[in-house]
Amino acid sequence: MSETTQSKTASYSKTPSKHAKPAAGLVVAKTNAKSIQQHNALGAELLATGDFKSALTSFNQAIAIDANDLEAYIGAGRALTVLKNYDYAIAHLQYAVELKPDDAAAHHFLAVALQKARQFDAAILSYQRSIELKPEDIASYLNLANTLAEADRHQDALDIYDGVIAHKPDDAMAYNNRGNLYLDCKYVDEALADYDKALAIAPNEMKFIWNKALLKLLMGDFETGWQLYEYGFKTEGFARGVRKQCPQPAWLGDFSIEGKRIVLYAEQGYGDVMQFVRYAPMVAALGAEVILEVPKPLVKLIEAMKGDFKVIAQSSVFTEFDAHCPLMSLPLVFKTRLETVPADVPYLFADQEKTADFALADKQKLQVGLVWSGSTTHNNDHRRSIPLATLRPLLDLPVSFHNLQKEIRANDQVVLNLLPQIKSYTERLQDFTDTAALIAQLDLVITVDTSVAHLAGAMGKPVWILLPYVPDYRWLLNTESSPWYPTARLFRQKTVGDWGTVLTELIAALQVFDNKTSFI
Hints:
alpha/beta; Rossmann fold; 3 domains; Serine Threonine Protein Phosphatase 5, Tetratricopeptide repeat; 47% helix; 23 helices; globular
């Protein structure tokens, strides 16, 4: 049982021992009360500074003294929510609501945890209850609207945003959040206007600058977008990951690195590394010795790149370098525009011995790899991933399908067990070199927006990418091709959540696919 679960059932004796003096018991009670207050105050301070694990420890210490302390349960629930431990967060906050059903804060933060856990209907009810108890709390209105937007109840969300702005026209967050809603509806001009209004009110709010950066990149305005993208390191929630902390200077093309040793490091996910590692040869061409610092599962794959690069894992302690730069800042360094994207593929390669191990028996049929879902922790996963059952009509085609996923959700596994058309390699796909080897044997990869899309594209393999109505910024808007990957074809939702039309287009395209377009 975890510490947080134990704390919920912890108890202490409320009755002094028969041998204890009453005065001593009173002193202990006062000491405990003071101690609880101190633990809660420290927890609140740690929450404010972003040290969420330590904050959780402080609140749990308060709960260990008093198993019915409302403030401690709310604080622990908030910390657990940020730490993405949603089940425990919800349990703590539900207990807080039981302790004091008329506490607006308890309902509000329970709603936040439910929202993060994608339990939208329950979150909406909790926000509504919070508003009933504290109707003057603008934050609850905005969060309710955000949840309605995530649940694709766009008009309901818009009504609330409009109401908040009418009531409080200087509320920068309301403009920002309405801008997010407009973007969800693909009203890009309206979204940009709202982001600008938010920034006019609060010009130093990093979150607003970050949202504008992503929109500019989505619109193909790389000149502005990559400049604003740098603000992601200052945005709450580690929008761009963690910046390297070291005595050596950061490099953004602002000084010569000729004859210097520079570390190019990953600050985000696997797919981001695969996409932007293409810039490493360009940095080396400036006369620098390039060290690539990447997540451990990518080390062997990146080592196979052409070029004299040293590749190290993120967990390594490596200090012998002169400068450093995050991989995703390199488009800014090289002033990348749509027409100047470095797109020479392949630049990632499969290991030949491993590729031979994945030799496919039936070469008479088209060999197609499938990826239908990504990480459940991705912010937009509920829009980008597809239930395997949705792809069932695709499997009636005379094609050999191969599962490129290692992690399979429980519901999808049930479906997969009933689909002998799909050959799985769960135990054999240990790292990305294995996935690359299997991809090298295929004619085509069909995938949602995951790291496999980037791997196949970087290998020069024909890859069809299935995108939600509003995709990640790197796939731009309304195009069927990608400037980043010449062998990619983009299949886009025409309306929010409509994978049916995408599947119809996919089947039609697969029936006439010419597999002679591979660069491999």
